[in-house]
Amino acid sequence: MTVAANEPLGEQGTPRNLARPGHREPHAHAAPQPFTYPLQRAFVEPDWTRLPGYGGVSAADWESAQWQRAHSVKNLHELKEALGSHLSDALAADIARDMAERATMSMLVPPQMLNTMNVDDLSADPVRRYMIPAFSERDPEWPSHPYSERDSLHEAEMWAVEGLTHRYPTKVLAELVSTCPQYCGHCTRMDLVGNSTPLIAKYKFEIKQPDRHAMILDYLRKTPSVRDVVVSGGDIANLPIKRLEEFVMGLLAIENIRDIRLATKALMGLPQHFLQPDVQEGLERLGRTARSRGVSIAVHTHVNHANQVTPLVARATAQFFDWGYRDVRNQGVLLRGVNATANDLLELCFTLLDHAGILPYYFYQCDMIPMAEHWRTAVWEAQALQHAIMGYLPGFATPRIVCDVPFVGKRWVHQLEEYDRERGISYWSKNYRTGIESEDAQALSKRHEYYDPISTLPESGQAWWREHTKELAVSP
Ligand code: SF4
Description:
The chain is α/β, with parallel strands linked by helices. It has two domains: 49-137, no CATH class; 156-472, Alpha-Beta Barrel (TIM Barrel). Helices cover 29% and strands 13% of the residues. A ten-stranded mixed β-sheet has the order 1-2-3-4-5-6-7-8-9-10. Helix 7 (209-221) runs parallel beside helix 8 (241-252) and helix 8 (241-252) packs parallel to helix 10 (277-292). The protein is globular. The chain starts with 58 loop residues before the first helix and ends with a helix. Bound molecules: iron/sulfur cluster. Iron/sulfur cluster binds at residues 180, 182-184, 187, 189, 193, 233-235, 265, 302.
């Protein structure tokens, strides 16, 4: 390009036509923001040999799913062995009391997850706080909301077949297995998933697994209005790959099934599972078969904190894209003391997106299960967080913060119809019938209530609940 000697130059030294109508001299530039990008955190696998229990563990053992499962921590003694003096006696006693008096999930933490904790400050560590809760962290007055329930989403009430929840018009949830390689303290399926605790005797499936799976497939064959199946549990990583493959191949043979999502927290908690040759081969066959039949198959995982996204997680995830999976998406849970700040959420979303190609999809408010009040956030807090994270991530990767309203389903936190902030009661409605409302003429006009944690209410609201609870004869 030639520049005439008398032609003006713009800020970048290029010629400018100042005579152009509406000429503007560009002046925008990157501004300081409440959240700073690029991320400052290093993306490296934390060194497991820093932990007293894993000092001599080789990389080959560390990357072995079998080794990880065999060394998963199941009790306080094993936790102490793994963490040594990093676990103080005071915190150990606090955890022990929680296990005896409050826990709704038993302890099960793979070394991979322990290794993502900051062992120099376990009391404050976000992963420890939701995987291995301590008694003193629970709400002292209201450890449970008076309206909390074991199966707070009434999933079992909406079973069409044992383990198959038919809540939405076109999609279902298939709980294939009731165990996981890791147990999360806040698990919404605490009624069904995992081992019993001193507080909670778990529900057990009554029908044998192969029969149950066959009955689920049979129901879906006979129900053409369903097009979308969430294949979950528990965690699909605890189903032998042959069984999983048989079931999903069964789904792929049903003409009305167009979307399949495999749900596994183990992609983060035990990525080693997905690096085993037989698991890789089975999942690859599923991806390629789905693609050849024009069915969308994706993986849904559950990561709550950026510290948990490591290179091994990214390696396990990358394979799914090669195998024809449409996406790997994250459904985290919003947990006070773990990730309920705009900074934590954005840090997590960018780490997922930039380092592992995982799409931030949803953050659920922690459900109204027993003993969860200290983790739960009020709807207004979730609304403020949604506002605070808008505009940073691409639109397609900006997660929606949702409230799973009993008898309604997921609702974006701004969708409520009315909100009594004093008593912390929000009112919600829906535009479809759940699987148990076909005879209910009021189903589409009814309003359903959702409750904020009482500790987040003004004193007048807390006093109302104290009185109201007496009337209900419910103990907090
Ligand atoms: S992995 Fe999912 S189903 Fe399993 S304990 Fe955690 S939240 Fe519950």
